[in-house]
TrEMBL record:
Its main location: nucleus. It is found in: Nucleus. InterPro entries: Swd2/WDR82 (IPR037867), WD40/YVTN_repeat-like_dom_sf (IPR015943), WD40_PAC1 (IPR020472), WD40_repeat_dom_sf (IPR036322), WD40_rpt (IPR001680). WD repeats lie at residues 29-70, 116-148, 257-287. Belongs to the WD repeat SWD2 family. GO terms for cellular component: Set1C/COMPASS complex. Signal peptide: none annotated. This is Uncharacterized protein. SMART domains: WD40. GO terms for biological process: DNA-templated transcription termination. One of its GO terms (molecular function) is chromatin binding. The lineage of its organism: Eukaryota, Viridiplantae, Streptophyta, Embryophyta, Tracheophyta. It comes from Prunus armeniaca. Keywords: Nucleus, Repeat, Transcription, Transcription regulation, Transcription termination, WD repeat.
Amino acid sequence: MAGGSEREDKVSMELTEEILQSMEVGLAFRDYSGRISSLDFHKATSYVVTASDDESIRLYDVSTATCLKTINSKKYGVDLVCFTSHPTTVIYSSKNGWDESLRLLSLHDNKYLRYFKGHHDRVVSLSLCSRKDCFISGSLDRTVLLWDQRAEKCQGLLRVQGRPATTYDDQGLVFAVAFGGFIRMFDARKYEKGPFDIFSVGGDMSDANVVKFSNDGRLVLLTTTDGHIHVLDSFRGTLLSTYNVKPVSSSSTLEASFSPEGMFVISGSGDGSVYAWSVRSGKEVTSWMSTENEPPVVKWAPGNLMFATGSSELSFWIPDLSKLGAYVGRK
């Protein structure tokens, strides 16, 4: 399989602190007239999708550095967006304050394939299962809903006490729901029995923002509005480290992302900057300052030495090989 070997080649240059410190913007799209609220990489192609406060959904091909499509969602607005397994089909949440349906949209022909109705307040968390056609959403209405992409009605409902953050693990066997200082782990096949484990994040009771597993499922991170990024062992629930950035406002989301092999965490900050830490040492590796004062959205590209940030512009960060003397002339 050609795609597989290409991806292995890309990762053969192992991510180190030195490479991370060399990273800078290699490509940027600056034609937004509102802040980017969400971005997602497709797992199997070079496509990226963004949602922005200018009410646009945009599809990019990173390999050709082009914007393939811009679709306006003037009626509903757009807040969170995620790829399905199909590279031109997305699920997105609205941002208009009156219709909280989620929508399955074909970017190819700008057609709505399905509406998912059930939430009664802003959806603040959306996670798709990479192995099956199911997804999970969390809302300020204090519910977490489980969905099947093929059905308009939700398949399950969990009530929470607070703003929920939700995510599936890479295998789709487990999902996590975080709120009120704890991460609750559920078996996706028997979630109605309640969580099989509950992990404390050390007394941080501020609102949960995002929760994510590392690719190998061994680690889980949680960000909160107080500007804390907690990293835990996802099997034992041990709190391994907490990184601190500037707090964010209740209308913003502090986003963080594991690097593909789970060795580093990158995160936005309430002062607009981006930070990187080593999971092993818990120490800050580098940071990139910004003139903006809202946390950027940040996502690491799957299986690549690249991450993206979204603020008033969309930026792709790659290593500057000229700064890496040791790597020049070496495969």
